[in-house]
Amino acid sequence: MTIVMENVSKLYQDGPKSFKALDSISLEVKKGEFLAIIGPSGSGKSTMLSIAGALLSPTNGTVWLDGENIANLSSKQITARRLKKIGFVFQAANLIPYLKVKDQLTVINMLAKHKDRANEGALLRHFGLAHRATNYPNELSGGERQRVAIARALINDPKLILADEPTASLDSKRGREVVETLANEIKSRGKSGIMVTHDERVLDLCDRVVTIRDGRLEE
Ligand SMILES: Nc1ncnc2c1ncn2[C@@H]1O[C@H](COP(=O)(O)OP(=O)(O)O)[C@@H](O)[C@H]1O
Ligand SMILES: [Mg+2]
C-alpha cells in the first residue's frame, strides 16, 4: 500500500472562527492503482491531496506513506520524503518561465542530488518533447506544458503521483491525453496515483472513483 489515510480531519483556523474542511477521511491506494476524487468546489479535495502529499499536516488522523507515519517526521524529513517519493501535477503546469524545458527537469534532479541525469532526456523523448528541449514554457502549447509538468513530476521515479485538476487548463482531447499518460505511468511502473478532477470524461481511465462532499468521503 503506497498511501493510507486513517481518520484524517483538517480544521482551518481563520481568526476566532474554525472550519472543518475534512471530517474523518480514510482511504488507501494500492500499488498500480489510480484513484479519482470528485466533488463540488470547496468540498475539501485539494486539502485532502495536500495532506496526502505532506504539503499540509492533518489536525487529526494518520497518514502512512510507503509504510511510514509521516506525522512523526520533522519538516526536514518530510521535505526529503516528498522529493524522493511523491510527484505533484497541478492545474496549471507551474513551469519556471525563464528555464528551458530540459532545465525544468534538471532543477529537480539537482534538488534531489541525483548524480545520474540520463532520465531527463529519456523522459522528454517518452513524452514526445525531445524537439522542445530547448524551448521556453511560453513557446509551448498547453498540452505540451502539462506534459513537461508530468515529466518533471516523474523525474524522481516517485511511488505516489498526486494530480490536482490536471486537465483544467486543457481542451478535452489534450486533457484526455494527459490523464492517459498518468494512467499509463501508474499501471506500467506500479506507481500509485490520486487525481482530483471535475472532468467526468476522464473517469473511465481511473480504477476507482470516490466523492468528497462537505469534507466527508462517499464511495
Ligand atoms: N488556508 C485555508 N484557510 C481557511 N479555509 C480554507 C483554507 N484552504 C481551504 N479552505 C476552505 O476549506 C474548504 C475546502 O477547500 P479545498 O480543499 O480547496 O476544496 P476543493 O479543492 O474541493 O475546492 C473550502 O471551504 C475552503 O474555503
Ligand atoms: Mg481544489
UniProtKB/TrEMBL annotation:
Keywords: ATP-binding, Cell membrane, Membrane, Nucleotide-binding, Transport. The keyword ATP-binding applies. InterPro entries: AAA+_ATPase, ABC_transporter-like_ATP-bd, ABC_transporter-like_CS, ABC_transpr_LolD-like, MacB-like_ATP-bd, P-loop_NTPase. It is a peripheral membrane protein. Transmembrane segments: none annotated. Gene3D superfamilies: P-loop containing nucleotide triphosphate hydrolases. GO terms for molecular function: ATP binding; ATP hydrolysis activity; transmembrane transporter activity. Pfam families: ABC_tran. It is found in: Cell membrane. GO terms for cellular component: membrane protein complex; plasma membrane. Its main location: membrane. Residues 3-219 form the ABC transporter domain. The complex is composed of two ATP-binding proteins (HrtA), two transmembrane proteins (HrtB) and a solute-binding protein. Part of the ABC transporter complex hrt involved in hemin import. Responsible for energy coupling to the transport system. Belongs to the ABC transporter superfamily. HrtA family. This is Putative hemin import ATP-binding protein HrtA. The lineage of its organism: Bacteria, Bacillati, Bacillota, Bacilli, Bacillales.
